[in-house]
Amino acid sequence: MEKIFNKRNLLTCALLLPLIALAETLLFLLKLPAWPVMVCMVSFFLAEQEREKTGHIVFGGALGELSCLILNLVFIPLIWLPLFGDGARFAGVVIFVLIFVGLIVLLLGVLPKFFNSFAFLFFLASTLGYKSDTVPELLAKLPLPLVWMAETLAGGTLIILGCVGIGVIVKKAVEK
Predict the structure, then answer these.
(1) How far is Cα 175 from Cα 156, in angstroms, rounded to an integer?
(2) DSSP 3-state of 123
(3) pTM, rounded to two decimals
(4) pLDDT confidence of 131, banded at 50, 70, 90?
(5) Nearest to residue 118, comparing CAs of 128, 129, 126?
(6) Could you report the per-residue pLDDT of 77-95, keeping only the tens digit for each?
(7) How many CB atoms lie within 10 A of CB 88?
(8) In angstroms, rounded to a whole number, what is the distance separating the alpha carbons of residues 41 and 49?
(9) Residue 166, pLDDT score
(10) 106 vs 101, 103, 130, CA distance in Å?
(11) pLDDT in tens, 22-46
């Protein structure tokens, strides 16, 4: 039981759960999808809570969402479909994914804050939400990936900073 109900775990829950509830409630009230912010938080935990990875998560995430925008508003309708027709839409998506993943592999060593696994994760998540997410009327004229990018950059950074703060508080409390 000590592995479950110890000071570290209980304090982390006491601080993290309200942070999640607050973020979810705020995004709900703003009529914004919560997934970009929550994927930032999960990515931070997957990156073993390394503060140095915050830029990789939010900038890579924003690039992934921007890539979704490029795929759906530029590559498929303006380049692929005029050349190959609607019957080849699937092939166009696959080609775009291959190009994007190739860029990640090639540029990881040069621009790691942008071209990384988080970029691909957010690209995949945004392609799933592309036709299903809605936003408030005020933002309805913007392409969804731009809204998600703003959420990722601002909300994602804030939630990661909140998690960092929780980690600092928990570490100090456990050391006492």
Answers:
(1) 29
(2) helix
(3) 0.91
(4) confident
(5) 126
(6) 999 999 999 999 999 999 9
(7) 14
(8) 9
(9) 96
(10) 9, 5, 27
(11) 999 999 999 999 999 999 999 999 9
Interacting residues of 160 by C-beta distance below 8 A, sequence separation 6+: 40, 41, 44, 54, 57, 58
Query: Which DSSP letter does residue 1 get?
Result: -
User: Among all chains, which residue has been given the structure tokens 């005020």?
Assistant: 138
With the C-alpha atoms ordered 148, 114, 118, 158, is the resulting torsion angle positive or negative? negative
Please tell me what DSSP assigns to residue 60: H
104 CB contacts (<8 Å, ≥6 apart)?
115, 116, 117, 119, 120
Q: Which two tokens stand for residue 139?
A: 């933002």
* Nearest Cα residue to 148 out of 63, 47, 41: 63
| Helices H / strands E in the chain, number of each | 8, 0
Average per-residue pLDDT in the chain?
94
Q: Which residue is associated with the tokens 């990515």?
A: 43
Alpha carbon distance 123, 121 (integer Å) = 5
Q: What 8-state DSSP symbol labels residue 74?
A: I
Tokens 């309708």 correspond to: 77
Lookup result for tokens 């990156």: 47
